[in-house]
Write a structure and sequence with these properties.
heterodimer; A: 294 residues; 10 helices; 2 strands; B: mainly alpha; 9 helices; 62% helix; elongated
């Protein structure tokens, strides 16, 4: 479910790319220092985005220093000063909680190979998960509710797109708006987060659809249009519907993003929203070399 | 006020032209200038006012039907404008299914959209527009949705940041080479 909220490199300046990577690296550092080596595997672009988003809405800008990556000691990297922002610790905590839940989900859903790997990963992460729950009991409760709501949708075998995406969307809406004091800004951030969560859920559903159809697993797109997923192929109508549905979700996000008082990283965030997310949509049904019909 | 259509002496289904003609004829008959120094002038004045009010009411009602707020939903529109969506939705849901007109579907669509229930919102906008094809407001909602679904929002990206990956690969390789020339490394495997 992770990795849909990413940058579109060709449109970033080198400086922006280095800044983005520094936040990615800083998140890795936060995970390592707060938890340990195992937690570093919960690192993802999505939580990098979340950190950046919170930093962008904060009154005080995040500052950076130069350091070295423990995994690639020959390269100098920029790191965020963790004293200058809470955002990284927050993202690290939530990343651990959410990854743990997702692994638990995989253990119950999947079969054979993936299940074993997931069970193993979950076992390593268990102690970190408990620690994270202790740091963020509220977020842990939200995550628990989110997983339960998700399970309920699957039990219903719903074909209702909006309802299926709702638990993920709501969860992200809370994460995005946490700690914001101003009512208007919090509302806008919440709506933005809602769109983001909806996007993540639907991308995941779209990507898994052919496989889910074959294995008769729950998938809202398949339920809505079973004919579209016969065999290994996705029909043109299904592809078009999914593409359009996702685009409108991104459009929803942009409407709220434009009203946010962004203090830092605006150009990188815009790259992600206006170019990165559309490119994720494009990648669903096109190989990298094809030109998108924009 | 009495039924405005009765005052003008027309049927409620009369065309706009017929309404205008009826008004003009009555206005000519009761215009104050005709009653100068006539003991009935006061009565004529009252009648003139009645005719004017009736004509205004009919024009307003017809305008609102073809686009824009109608009296019934003004309070809901105002709630939506104030972002009090939960209350707006409550009021909307209180309307009986049999009484749900095009405007109901449009307003419900608006509430659903901001809730993030985009597909449901679209369904409602489409129903509203189909019920009243001449309504510009509902048509715009459907068109906006189509525009967004086809990626139109990307062209609005401020800073001109767009995904128009004309040949993603060659751009990436080019960027990587430049990066490496400067001492960095965009794509470590190239």
């Amino acid at each position: 479910m992770f990795g849909y909220i990413r940058i579109h490199k060709p449109e970033l300046t080198f400086r922006e790319y280095e800044q983005y990577r520094s936040i990615y690296c800083s998140l890795c550092e936060a995970l390592g220092q707060r938890y340990g080596l195992a937690a570093r595997m919960t690192l993802s672009y999505d939580f990098t985005f979340l950190s950046m988003f919170h930093m962008a809405l904060s009154e005080t800008p995040a500052t950076f220093r130069v350091g070295r990556c423990p995994f690639r000691p020959t390269k100098k990297r920029a790191f965020c000063d963790r004293e200058s922002t809470d955002a990284l610790d927050y993202a690290a905590d939530v990343a651990v909680i959410l990854t743990y839940h997702k692994l638990a989900d995989t253990v119950t859903d999947e079969r054979s190979f993936k299940k074993v790997f997931a069970a193993f990963a979950r076992a390593i992460l268990k102690r970190d998960f408990k620690k994270a729950v202790h740091h963020r009991s509220l977020e842990a409760q939200w995550a628990q509710k989110f997983m339960e709501a998700q399970a309920a949708i699957e039990r219903e075998n719903s074909d209702f797109i909006d309802a299926a995406a709702h638990p993920t969307a709501e969860f992200l809406s809370r994460l995005a708006s946490v700690g914001i004091v101003d009512d208007d800004v919090r509302y806008t951030a919440e709506r933005f987060g809602y769109g983001l969560g909806r996007f993540i859920y639907l991308c995941d559903a779209a990507e898994d659809a052919p496989d889910d159809a074959k294995r008769r697993r729950f998938n809202v797109f398949v339920n809505r249009d079973p004919q579209g997923f016969q065999g290994d192929k996705v029909s043109d109508e299904a592809k078009e519907y999914i593409t359009q549905c996702l685009h409108q979700t991104v459009a929803f996000c942009t409407e709220y993003y434009e009203h946010l008082p962004i203090q830092q990283f605006d150009s990188i965030l815009r790259n992600i929203i206006y170019a990165g997310m559309p490119s994720t949509i494009h990648r669903l049904y096109h190989s990298a070399q094809e030109e998108p019909k924009v | 006020m009495k039924n405005p259509y009765d005052i003008l002496g027309v049927s409620p289904t009369a065309s706009d032209e017929e309404i205008k003609t009826a008004y003009r004829n009555l206005a000519r008959k009761y215009h104050p200038d005709q009653y100068d120094a006539n003991p009935l002038s006061e009565l004529a004045q009252e009648k003139m006012k009645e005719i004017n009010d009736a004509y205004d009411a009919i024009v307003r009602e017809r305008q609102s039907r073809s686009g824009g707020a109608s009296a019934g939903y003004i309070d809901i529109r105002s709630l939506i404008a104030q972002r009090r969506y939960a209350q707006a939705e409550e009021l909307l849901d209180g309307v009986l299914p049999a009484a749900r007109n095009a405007e109901w579907y449009f307003l419900k669509g608006q509430v659903l959209y901001q809730k993030g229930w985009i597909e449901e919102a679209n369904r409602h906008f489409t129903v509203a527009s189909n019920m009243e094809p001449n309504n510009a407001e509902y048509r715009n909602a459907v068109q906006k949705s189509t525009y967004q679904r086809n990626g139109g929002y990307m062209h609005n990206a401020p800073n001109g940041c767009t995904f128009s990956a004309c040949d993603v690969c060659s751009t990436l390789i080019c960027a990587d080479c430049c990066c490496e020339c400067m001492g960095g490394d965009c794509i470590s495997c190239c």
